[in-house]
Amino acid sequence: MKLHLKTCLILELLPPIVCAYVVSIFVGTDMICRNLLLQAQSNMQLDINSARLIYQKALDEMRGPLLLAATDPAIQNALRSGSPEPAETRMEKLRKTMNLDVLNLLDITGTVVVRSRTPSRRGDSLATDPMIRAIIEGQEIVTSTDVASSGELRHESDSLAQMASIPIVGKAGSSGTDSVEERGMLLKSSVAVKDNAGRLVGILYGARLLNRDGRIVDEIYQTVFKGEVYKGRQIGEATICLEDVRIATLLTKDGLRAVGTRVSPDVREQVIIRGQPWIGRASVVGEWHLTAYEPIRNLSGDVVGALGLGILESKLTDIRHETLTVFLLITLGGVLLSFVLATLMARSVTVSIRKLLRTVQAVADGNLDCQADTESSVCEIAELGRHINRMTLSLKERALVMAEGPTIEADNLLFYGPTIARACAPGNTPDGIATTAPASSPCAGGANDVGQLARMEMWEISAALKKFDGQMARAAEYLGINRKTLREKMHRYGLNQD
Fold first, then answer.
1. Is the pTM of this model over 0.85?
2. Could you tell me the sign of the dihedral formed by the alpha carbons of 167, 171, 177, 179, in that order?
3. Could you read off the pLDDT tens digit of each residue along the chain, which spans 498 residues?
4. Residues 465-482, buried b or exposed e (16+ Cβ, 10 A)?
5. Two domains, one topology: 63-209 and 347-402
């Protein structure tokens, strides 16, 4: 099947355009997805850093009030006099003012002198506590996260033990209650109580229970996510875990904060078991989030829990889809523009070719005054036009030379028409052609056999020799061949110089 040049050019240009489009889709999609994920993970790293600072700030905020309370006259007098009763009321007031769940006064051996929440329970020793031991050994203040057993919490207060108790929802993704978490995670701080001489006379010990306490996670959410809501839901979540159990969180389940749920097994393995940070995709209460977790360590450096936050993956997915849609539309627009430009370029080329074709057809029909366009923007087409014009000029010059008068006749053009017919007509041989040509001579056949071109050539050679009175040099120059070739052709056709 024959096709137009324009169609051929478009079909030639179309595969590279389509291939470029397909490659750009695959490469661009991969780059967009990877860059969005890397950007999201980078943002999560910054966010978890902010969350850690907020958590550390909550620890540091315990220091100032405790240091100030250590100078309180009632506490100083209770340690000097050995009579704790006057200090009990004062310490309970200080505990509530400082928003603490535990505030105890100990002597220099670590024995409890005043337990503000339950004054009747005193006399037990806390000397084995690493934080108390650090103060006894000479440190001024020690602050850290710690985990208290259910017995330790009950000894402080029955109500405190009840506050810490959290039913644990089974393994990640399951339902039902497997057990109860009765331990409590505490922000703890101990400060040295000294007399006017700078001698250690006691220890003031305070703690804040994190179980079910949403103040830190709420502050993290407001600081990191600015309270943003996405499609009617909180865009992110913040969580404090005791080991792998959420004890304080913004996550909701059935309208309530999802305390007691577990982090995913992958997060537990990475953060709790190995003690390494986690940034990645994780299932959170049945929904996928992009999450970041960091281990929480006690004073001894052991992992006791995790601080985490996450953002709804659905938002990241929507952002990715929107970005890909814009990218694909832009790419498709580029392809369409390329196709339009290719069509215009093909049209420009074919228009120039058609002009040359019309010129050649006109010359073939005998119009030697027709000129080809040489102003094309395509160098090769412009060059072809110049050669056509040179060819036309040469034909015209030859016709003028061959003309016997001032008018150019059709036979003077030497086209495949009357000239051949006249050249091969019986008895119509030019002057000087041997009349006894052998049977192999080009003029031996009819006017329509394959020797037509040879007979035309014979006629031209004869005419040129006649025109230049047998001067072979001038005839050869006129015919555009050298003398040797002219001599060989004369011998072949049985022509003589005269």
1. no
2. negative
3. 667 777 777 777 788 878 887 888 888 888 887 888 788 888 888 999 999 999 999 999 999 999 999 999 889 888 888 788 888 889 999 999 999 999 999 999 999 999 999 988 888 999 999 999 999 999 999 999 999 999 999 999 999 999 999 998 865 433 344 589 999 999 999 999 998 888 999 999 999 999 999 999 999 988 988 877 777 777 888 999 999 999 999 877 666 788 898 988 999 999 999 999 999 888 776 778 888 999 999 999 999 999 999 888 877 778 888 888 888 888 888 888 888 888 887 787 788 888 888 888 887 777 777 788 777 777 888 888 888 888 887 777 766 666 555 565 555 555 433 444 444 444 444 444 433 334 433 344 443 443 555 777 788 888 888 888 888 888 888 887 888 888 888 888 888 876
4. beebeeeeeebbebbeee
5. no
Q: Is 176 exposed, middle or buried (0-12, 13-18, 19+ CB in 10 A)?
A: exposed
Length of the chain: 498
The answer to whether the Cα torsion of 343, 347, 350, 354 is positive or negative is positive
As beta bridge partners, residue 194 has 200
> What are the domain boundaries of the chain?
63-209, 347-402, 416-493
The architecture CATH gives domain 347-402: Orthogonal Bundle (1.10)
DSSP state at residue 165 = -
Q: What is the CATH topology of the domain spanning 63-209?
A: Beta-Lactamase (3.30.450)
Residue 442 three-state SS: helix
Q: Measured between alpha carbons, how far is 215 from 259 in angstroms, rounded to an integer? A: 14
